[in-house]
Design brief:
This protein is of the alpha/beta class and about 220 residues long. The chain contains seven helices and eight strands, in the order βββαβααβαβαβαβα. It has helices at about 45-55, 70, 80-95, 115-125, 145-150, 165-175, 195-210; strands at about 5-15, 15-25, 30-35, 60-65, 105-110, 130-135, 155-160, 180-185. The protein has an eight-stranded mixed β-sheet, with helices on both faces. It comes from Zhouia amylolytica AD3. GO terms for molecular function: hydrolase activity.
């Protein structure tokens, strides 16, 4: 168990301020930045569960709101992947310039549409992002040309009952050129609501981040 220091923060982004929850641990292996899906927030119980498990396994985490309350009220913004990607890139750069996180290698954990913005941001930021994990993600919202530019190791986790998303992930999988893997969780739906299924997600995510995020 790693000692945990959690704090609420405000992140400046192009004249606005986005709330976040930054959790630091002792001797961190890296920091995992969460990119949540449409209609969700930094308070997402599923992402919070995953973040807590990552904290217990030695990773710092950042959960934050990609949109302000006013922006989120406009439905189209929730699916504006370019806007969400810009926000994620800016916040990643902000993390890289904070004294307590500036030296930490970075991974992304993206859920649903948030996985699309995580992959687009990774294509832009290159090796600054050490690894990406997608939970029930929508990589089909990213152009193949952008997926071609993703060089960081990518793990796509999907529930076996989420048939449409499985097909979308399998198509996008072939466009990713780097290290990649698809993990299908038996008996899980899109939200991994069945008992124990989200725990399986955290297990695979932890293994992936442990293998690829820490610098040698």
């Amino acid at each position: 168990m790693h000692a945990v220091n959690q704090k609420n923060i405000q992140i400046p982004v192009n004249g606005i301020s986005l709330p976040g929850i930054l959790t630091l641990v002792s001797n961190p292996k890296g920091i995992i930045i969460f990119s949540h899906g449409s209609g969700s927030s930094r308070l997402s119980p599923r992402n919070t569960f995953v973040a807590n498990e990552l904290n217990n396994n030695g990773f710092a985490t950042l959960l934050f709101d990609l949109l302000t309350v006013e922006e989120d009220a406009i439905y189209e913004n929730r699916f504006n992947i370019d806007l969400l990607t810009d926000r994620l890139v800016i916040i990643t750069r902000w993390i890289q310039h904070q004294e307590e996180t500036s030296k930490l290698p970075i991974g992304y954990f993206g859920a649903s549409t948030g996985a699309a913005s995580a992959l687009k941001a990774t294509a832009l930021l290159g090796t600054d992002i050490r690894a990406v994990v997608s939970r029930g993600g929508r990589p089909d919202l990213v152009l193949d040309a952008e997926l071609n530019n993703v060089r960081s190791p990518v793990l796509l986790i999907i529930g076996s009952l989420d048939h449409t998303v499985i097909n979308l992930n399998q198509k996008a999988f072939h466009a990713i050129n780097g290290i990649k893997k698809i993990e299908i969780i038996p008996g899980a739906n899109h939200l991994f609501e069945a008992p124990g299924k989200l725990k399986e997600v955290t297990k695979h995510a932890t293994y992936w981040f442990t293998d690829y995020v820490p610098k040698e």
